[in-house]
Each structure stands twice: as structure tokens, then as C-alpha cells.
UniProtKB/TrEMBL annotation:
Protein name per Swiss-Prot or TrEMBL: Small ribosomal subunit biogenesis GTPase RsgA
Occurrences of domain EngC GTPase (ranges): 77-225
Signal peptide location: none
Family from the record: Belongs to the TRAFAC class YlqF/YawG GTPase family. RsgA subfamily.
Quaternary structure annotation from Swiss-Prot or TrEMBL: Monomer. Associates with 30S ribosomal subunit, binds 16S rRNA.
Alphabetical list of PANTHER family matching this protein: SMALL RIBOSOMAL SUBUNIT BIOGENESIS GTPASE RSGA, SMALL RIBOSOMAL SUBUNIT BIOGENESIS GTPASE RSGA 1, MITOCHONDRIAL-RELATED
Entries under Pfam families matching the protein: RsgA_GTPase (PF03193)
Required co-factors: Zn(2+)
Entry's cofactor comment: Binds 1 zinc ion per subunit.
């Protein structure tokens, strides 16, 4: 009998699948047929040799990062919201935030920033950090609070509702802590995940989905240092910078490279302070990376 389930963890040759009552089943993958990722809906079937994945349902969306060679690699599928977690420590990386904005936009998944560990901030510090984030990042949705104290969790719970949210960001910002705070009673050690490292720290090594029956599904992912986007197109980068896209049409020369040409609207915006220099620099850098990526793919 075929049964439907959701992939909570996928490794090279098998995956863990949650059935309707939340029980987990270890399923082998068939050689043919797509390779499921965390968040996929699949059909599976118990057989004498163990359970087998029969089919992967078409995805509503999929998040694909670049692997070490810059090739797209799926991270998770069927996601309603990406939550980029930052914290006072480790220090937020503004370029990483812009990379995630491009990634979420490319997958057509709304992005929310969560400033975690506010229990470690004085009110004035919290305010200064949030003010800087909103100045540096054009129209970025931002919430804040603490996985430890519980501050702000109701707002993020409301935002996620009964949907599926993925938590992404640097190592140590509190993605797993937030997952545990939002899905009470969850055991993140399910399967082979979350091996404690020698220092007794629990750094996440696998992308895993946890859910509360009738509540949200949360996908906890391993921390990253950076995020490769060279498999995306310059147009996909442009889409995440609508304020800059609008300006590039206003340069004096249609083929302006925005590199010191006369009548460059971007240069004007930078000099007048209408756009933060950092934002323009990140845009230029990501455009360059994706243009190089295209050149690599063609050669
Ligand atoms: N003060 C404070 N500490 C927190 C909070 N959330 C998490 N931490 C601490 O920050 C450290 C890292 O938390 P994790 O939840 O493991 O971070 P992570 O983002 O999952 O890290 P990786 O799995 O390595 O990517 C732990 O020592 C947590 O106890 C918070 O809201 N306030
Ligand atoms: Mg973690
Ligand atoms: Zn220009």
C-alpha cells in the first residue's frame, strides 16, 4: 500500500519520512526517480526489504544554493517562508543578508530577518542595530526577540502560522534554539543529526524538518559562512534590488557600466546618499559573480 509522507531528512541513499501521525520511517531511495530533499512530499511503500520511496511529488518551490563548484544544490522544498537569523554575536554579515535576499527572491519565498538574542542587548543597542539594518537593507522585513527568554516569539509564530519555514544563517546565531522554542517537545537529535562536537557544542550538520501536529513545520539548517549564487542569473540578482534596477534605467548611456561613466544615476545616488554605498557595492559584486557564472557555464 502506498502512503504519503513528508521528508524530514535526506541523505545520500535514504531519507526519513514523517507520516500523518508524525511517526518516522526510514525509506530507501530507488536508483531512478528524483532524489528527495527536506520538505518534499513523497509516496512510499513498505516492502519486505524495508520501506522504499516510490515517487517524489512535484515541488511548489525549491531552494537551491551553489555547491563548492558553483553548481545548484537543493536544500529544501515546499517552503512558505525563509527566516534569516542574525544575532549580536556572531557579528551580522551585511553581504550574507543580501545574498539571502537574492536566494529567497529567486525561489519566490518571502524572507524575514530575525534578530535573535535580544536578551543580550540593552534597549538602546537593540534600537541602534535595527535602525542600521533598515538603513542598509531597503525594505527588509525584520522581527526581533530571543529564543532564550521567549521575547518576540508570538510574532514569529503568527507569521509562520501553519506553514513551513526554513531557518538559515551563520553558525551560532540560534537557529536550532529557535526551532526548539517554536516547536516544543521537538528532539533535534532524531536520525544521525546534531552530533555533539568535541567542545560539547551542538552544531547542526544536516537540514532537518520538525513539526508540531496542526502547527508550523520548521526546517533547521546547518550554519553557513557564505552562500554561493553563481548558478543564478544577473536578472535574478537584479530582481532582489528593485531600487537599483529602477535607477539603472536613468543613466545617461544605455550601456552604462556604472563605473565612473558621465551621467551615471547610480553614482549620483551614491554621492547624494540616496542609496547606501554598501548596497550598491553588494549589488555590483553579486551581478559580477552571476555574470562570471554564466560565462563559466557557456565555456
Ligand atoms: N543569550 C542567548 N543565547 C542564545 C539564544 N539563542 C541561542 N543562544 C545560544 O547561542 C548558541 C548557539 O545556538 P544554536 O541554536 O546552536 O545556534 P545555530 O544557529 O543552530 O548554530 P549552528 O547549528 O552551528 O548553525 C547556544 O549556546 C545557544 O544557547 C538567545 O536568544 N539568547
Ligand atoms: Mg543549529
Ligand atoms: Zn550608470
Amino acid at each position: 500500500m502506498r502512503r504519503r509522507g513528508r521528508v524530514v531528512l535526506s541523505t545520500g541513499d535514504h531519507c526519513l519520512v514523517a507520516d500523518q501521525s508524525g511517526d518516522l520511517h526510514r525509506c530507501q531511495l530507488r536508483r531512478r526517480g528524483g532524489r528527495p530533499v527536506c520538505g518534499d512530499w513523497i509516496d512510499w511503500q513498505a516492502q519486505s526489504g524495508g520501506a522504499v520511496v516510490e515517487a517524489v511529488e512535484p515541488r511548489r518551490n525549491v531552494i537551491e544554493r551553489g555547491d563548492f563548484r558553483g553548481h545548484p544544490r537543493p536544500l529544501a522544498a515546499n517552503v512558505d517562508r525563509m527566516v534569516l537569523v542574525i544575532a549580536p554575536t556572531p557579528t551580522p554579515d551585511p553581504l550574507l543578508i543580501d545574498r539571502y535576499r537574492v536566494l529567497s527572491r529567486a525561489a519566490a519565498i518571502p524572507l524575514t530577518l530575525w534578530l535573535n538574542k535580544t536578551d543580550r542587548l540593552e534597549e538602546a543597542q537593540r534600537h541602534a542595530l535595527l535602525t542600521r539594518l533598515s538603513a542598509d537593507h531597503h525594505r527588509l522585513d525584520c522581527l526581533d526577540g530571543s529564543a532564550r527568554s521567549g521575547a518576540g516569539l508570538d510574532a514569529i509564530r503568527r507569521l509562520i502560522g501553519a506553514g513551513t519555514a526554513i531557518l538559515v544563517g551563520q553558525s551560532g546565531v540560534g537557529k536550532s534554539s529557535l526551532t526548539k522554542a517554536l516547536v516544543p517537545g521537538v528532539d533535534l537529535r532524531v536520525g544521525e543529526i546534531n552530533r555533539a562536537s568535541g567542545q560539547g557544542r551542538h552544531t547542526t550538520t544536516e537540514t532537518i524538518l520538525v513539526e508540531h501536529p496542526g502547527g508550523p513545520a520548521l526546517i533547521d539548517s546547518p550554519g553557513v559562512r557564505t552562500l554561493r549564487l553563481d548558478h543564478l542569473s544577473p536578472g535574478q540578482v537584479m530582481a532582489a534590488f528593485p531600487d537599483i534596477a529602477e535607477l539603472t534605467g536613468q543613466c545617461q548611456f544605455r550601456d552604462c557600466r556604472h563605473n565612473g561613466e558621465p551621467g551615471c544615476a547610480l553614482q549620483r545616488a551614491r554621492e547624494s546618499g540616496a542609496l547606501p554605498a554598501q548596497r550598491i557595492a553588494h549589488w555590483a559584486r553579486l551581478m559580477q559573480e552571476t555574470e562570471n557564472g554564466l560565462a563559466d557555464q557557456k565555456s
